[in-house]
């Protein structure tokens, strides 16, 4: 398994002016990161940089996964589903046929700092118009595993073997497409190793300072795109990173704003549905994990 490409993101603003670091999220790169479409790393100690949030907006044809490290995110959709993500919480949202919602970052208690990630995962043609759902994972329900070598893994989805326990499966499962999502911390002098299945696309987003991936030094806030030939991924600490892996969908992508479909005719139909008030096909189900 080799490094195929290294990418640096860019600082930008989204929503109503929220300052964030866009790790990747460009239609021209979507084939290379397939099935992953976008990753935003948001964070600030200054409320004026995030309080305007992400007011009402639609999604169709994708999954969005919001993982919070610090602060709160208040979520509400047009069908009356609402809730609050706190530090360490995660929401896995399948927009499917359509969700219209808002996401509003807020300070947690007296701490003004907010920090977290939003990942977009594509859906295959057969599931673009699937029923929407939320899977809400509280921090206390997220397994925190320790490898033989001493790395700590917060396991969201996928499987990992823990010494003395055996194979542990992440609590977010029964997804439209199988995806591995882990938050990994590796102490100095320790190496984390993970075997990736052949044909899967694996991404490593390093956000805890410089690290060594496949014996190559990687700067902070860098994305490593691995080849799809399978094998063992190694990361030497000190490091903290997100590990993402999934089998590429390999279908055409038509992407406009928060809606991702297979054809431009489907994009046109989505915006017609918004204009006509027929965008929402079914109320999203909610599962608290």
From TrEMBL:
Pfam families: Pirin, Pirin_C. Residues 18-121 form the Pirin N-terminal domain. InterPro entries: Pirin, Pirin_C_dom, Pirin_N_dom, RmlC-like_jellyroll, RmlC_Cupin_sf. Residues 181-279 form the Pirin C-terminal domain. It comes from the Archaea. PANTHER family: PIRIN (PTHR13903:SF8), PIRIN-RELATED (PTHR13903). Belongs to the pirin family. This is Pirin family protein.
